[in-house]
Specification:
It is a single chain. The protein contains 2 helices and 4 strands. The protein is of the alpha+beta class and 129 residues long.
């Protein structure tokens, strides 16, 4: 988590991907363009699911984790290839407002129509499944 927090706090959301049910975050430039300059292996066992509120690493294939991560705003029906970092446990009204405001770009994968900046992240080591 220490690799994610400095990128997450004060950075913001890259785009909203309604078709995937996720809010991708953390790319330094734009989806699949930037990155921190390093990659690390996946930590998955094939049983991962991504219900609403899941926070997971985004990637561009096996072993390509870097700075991209996402929050599931509905249900992401995707392959179990993304390392789960944790789960959102409150603030769903803010998440829903971001999604409801729409996407600024017309390509369907652009930034949120309303700018979003993460100002606070709290990590709780209790299991919230």
């Amino acid at each position: 988590m220490s690799c994610v927090l400095p990128i997450a706090v004060g950075d913001g959301f890259d785009r909203t991907a309604a078709r995937l049910g996720v809010l991708p975050c953390g790319d330094l430039i734009r989806q699949e363009v930037g990155g921190p300059g390093y990659k690390f292996p996946d930590e998955v066992d094939g049983t991962e699911t991504y219900p609403r509120g899941t926070i997971a690493m985004g990637n561009q294939g096996p072993g390509t984790n870097g700075s991209e991560w996402f929050i599931v705003h509905s249900f992401a029906n995707i392959s179990p290839n993304y390392t789960v970092l944790g789960h959102q446990v409150s603030g769903f009204d803010a998440l829903d407002a971001i999604v409801a405001a729409g996407i600024a770009d017309t390509d369907g994968d652009g930034p949120p129509a309303q700018p979003v900046v993460i100002t606070d992240v709290r990590v709780d080591n209790r299991n919230h499944h």
